[in-house]
Amino acid sequence: MNPIDPEDLKRKLQNGLKNPNPKSGLAWALKRKVTVRFGNKIDPFQPIEETYKVSEAALRILSSLKWPYVVQTRNTYRFIQYEEIVVGDMGIFVFQPIISPGAEMDWEILERKRTTPIKDRFKHIQMFKKQGVKVAVNGEPFIPGFHTIKMFEDMIKRLKSAGVKNYNTYNFHFNDFVAKRLLAIKLDIEKIWEMNQDKNWKPILHQLCEIANKYDIILGCPDFVNVPKERKNETNTCCGINVQTPTTYNTHTWRNMLLAGIPIDQIIEKTWDGIGNKEEGLKILMGEGEKMYTMADAGLVEKKKNKGVLFWF
Fold first, then answer.
1. pLDDT by residue (tens digit) across 185-227?
2. Could you give the number of structural domains in the chain?
3. Which terminus of the chain has a lower count of CB atoms within 10 Å, N or C?
4. Are residues 112 and 71 in the same domain?
5. Which residue stretches of the chain are H helix?
């Protein structure tokens, strides 16, 4: 992962706005001034930020261009140093601290007490809310086999008490590095691996959705395959908040249109914007294709042959 070159970042953003003929997803995103999710790959406010101030420079660039952005971090004490920048960006800035379902337990075991304590993250939520800043909370990850349904509900209750309406969830991205780290802190990686599989994760996710609905919390989740079929997403991203997207030609848009009863051929025409493979998109919509999940996997479309006619429901 390469560090940000602030001047290069500013030049690319400015040039992207002037691009008369965007031909890629990224080019379309820049042209449309799509929301930047700042911190989704790595926390931008780690201790090294005190020395190099690269994240501060990026924040000031986004602010100067009035570019919509979401700041996602576990290190809210360091981030609030830049309060004067972000509070001035009312309407384009969203504060999104990361608070996973295990709360204080996660802070001790997973974050190893290196980040802002959970109670103080809630204090910073209240601070920004009082100033009129939009706040959402990132709940990733929910680790099946480690986190429990009760932990999730307790977190939802705390969010509700704090006046937070937007939370997001997703199960675990399990790879070799993650397995090694979990083993080092003596977690049961075999149990976590097994519970992380779709067949076990799906009923858990259904319960999480029910809990969020019970407390009137908007639960963002990118896992359209495993959420309840009847559940329309109130949000169009995994952030748990509505933001402008670079393209309408995506599975989240298709899912909601299918739920609304719009025929597949019309969906293709309504969402095609020149980005992506039109034929591959049609296969996904029709429940065909083997490279990725399709609308059939989501339970929203079933391919049936009846005198050569295809039915969708």
1. 999 999 999 999 999 999 999 999 999 999 999 999 888 899 9
2. 2
3. N
4. yes
5. 6-18, 25-31, 49-52, 54-64, 76-79, 83-86, 104-109, 118-130, 149-161, 176-184, 189-195, 198-214, 251-259, 264-271, 278-286
